[in-house]
C-alpha cells in the first residue's frame, strides 16, 4: 500500500496497537467506506492519534497565552494549567476527526436519497429498450455533475465488475453493503434479486421510481436541515465568533502590549477568509447533484474541422453576432465582462494611487485601502449584473420547463406528431420558454432530430433539471425510440425536481437573512467600539504606559487609527465572504452571492466613512 510519509510514521507508532483493538473500530471502518474517505481504519485512527498529539501542546500553549491573565492570581502555578489545556485541545481534535466520517457518510446518504429518484427514472426509461444494467450505470457514472453521489456509487459497481472481475450480482451486493443510504441499499439488493430471478425490470424501475419520489421529499428536508446546521456553524464560527475573539484580543492588547497584535492580524487576514473558503467548499460538495446547482456539461458534439475557410467563417459569424447583440453574449457568458471590467478597475487603481507609492508601507496601506474597495466595486459590479440576468433567465426557464414537458406530452397523446406538438406550443403562454420552443423547432426542421434538439437546449440552459431531462431523453430514445413514454418519464421527473427546489428555496431564505443579521451584529459591535470605547482611551503611542487615576490600570501603547483600520478590513472581509456563503447556501452558487457581498461591503464602507 502506497502511504504518505506521515501515515507511515503514524501507522508505525500506533498501527499494531490499533489492529489488536480492531473490534472497537468496526463501525468506524464501515463509516469510512460509506464516506469514501479512501483509507483503512488503521491508517485513519493512527493519523488521528498522531495529529491530536502533535497539535495538543501547541494549541494548549496558544490558548494559555491568550487567556493566561485569567490565571494570573495563581502565579507560577498557572503553568500547571497548560497540560490540562493541551489534553483538552488534543481530545477535541481527536473527537472532531473521529466524527468526520460519520458526518460525511450522513451527508452522502441524504444526497443519495435526493438524487436517487432521478437516476431510477433514467433507468426506467432506458429499461424499455435494454436490460443491460451496466450500460445504465455507465451513463449515470459519466454524468457525475447531474447525478452526484449516485454516480460515485454506481462507479464502484463498474469497477467491481470490470477491474476486480466480480459478477454483477456480487458487485451490487458489495455496493449495497457499503452504501450510506438505506434506500439505495434496498434498491441495489432488490435489483440483484430481480436480475437473478429474471424479473421484469421495467415494472421494477417504475415501482421504485414512484416509491423514491416520495422518499426524496423527506430526504430533501433532511438535506435542508444539514444546510441549516452549516449556516448556523458559519454564523457562530466565522461570522460572529471571530468578532468576540477580536474584541478580546484588542482588550488584552491594551493591557499586554504588542504581543497580541500578531493574533489579531491572523484572525482578521487569515481566519475570516480561510473560514469562508472552507464553508464554501463544504456547501458546494453538499449541493453537488441537487436541483439548486447550475452546471455546464461539456459539449462533445460540436463539429470539428480542419478547413481554414470554415474556421474563418465561423469566427466572422461569432464576431457579427457579438456586434449585433453584444449584451446577449455577456448575458450568456457573464465571465466575458471581466475582460473589460478588470482592466478598467486596475487602470483606475493605478491612476488614483500613483502618488502614494513613495510612502512607507504602513502609510501606503492607510491611503490605498479605500481605493481597493472602489476597484473591487468597479470590477465586480458589472459582473454581478450580468450574472443575475443570466441566472434569472435560467431560473425562469427551469420553472417553466416541467410545464413545457407536461403540455408536450398531452399534445402528443392527443395524436399529434412530436414536431407538430412542439409547433403548437409555440403559441402557448410559457413565458421565456417560448423562445426556447422556437429554437427547438428550428433545430428539428434543420434535420438535427429530437435528441440533438434537446441536447442543444441543454447546452443553452445549464440547470440540473434541464440537463437531467436531456440526458434521459437522448439516451432513452437511442435505446427505445419510444418518444411518448420517454417524455412522460422526463416530465414526471422534472415536476418532482421543481417541487423539491421550491421547497428548499423557501426554507433556506431564512438562513440567508440570518447571515445578514450576523453581519449587522458584527458591524454594530465594531461601530460601538470605534465610537464609544476607543475615544475613552488615553492618547498614547506604542511602548508608552499610562496609569489611569483611581483605577490602577496600566494601558500599553494604543494606536487608534491602526485598530480602526483593522476593524474596517475585518468588516470588509466578513461582508465579502458572508455574501458568497449566502449565495452558495440560498441559491446553490457562490456567484449569486456576489450581490450580497457587494451590498454588505458598501454598507460597511459607508459606516466606517461616517465614523
Question: Would you mind describing this structure in some detail?
Answer:
The protein has about 600 residues and is an all-alpha fold. The chain folds into three domains: about 1-120, no CATH class; about 120-220, no CATH class; about 310-610, no CATH class. About 80% of the residues lie in helices and about 0% in strands. The chain has 21 helices and two strands. The chain has helices at about 5-20, 25-35, 40-65, 80-125, 135-140, 145-160, 170-175, 180-195, 200-255, 260-285, 310-325, 325-330, 340-355, 360-415, 420-425, 435-445, 450-460, 465-480, 485-535, 560-585, 595-610; strands at about 545-550, 555. Strands 1-2 form a two-stranded antiparallel ribbon. Mean pLDDT is about 80; it is low at about 300-305 and about 550-555.
Q: Topology of this protein?
A:
Blueprint: H1 5-20, H2 26-35, H3 41-67, H4 81-127, H5 133-141, H6 144-162, H7 168-177, H8 182-197, H9 201-256, H10 261-287, H11 308-324, H12 326-332, H13 338-353, H14 361-413, H15 418-425, H16 433-445, H17 449-460, H18 464-479, H19 483-533, E1 546-548, E2 553-555, H20 560-587, H21 594-610
Antiparallel strand pairs: 1-2
Helix pairs in contact: 1-3, 2-4, 3-4, 4-6, 4-9, 4-18, 4-19, 5-6, 6-7, 7-8, 8-9, 9-10, 9-19, 9-20, 10-20, 11-12, 13-14, 14-15, 14-19, 14-21, 15-16, 16-17, 17-18, 18-19, 19-20, 19-21, 20-21
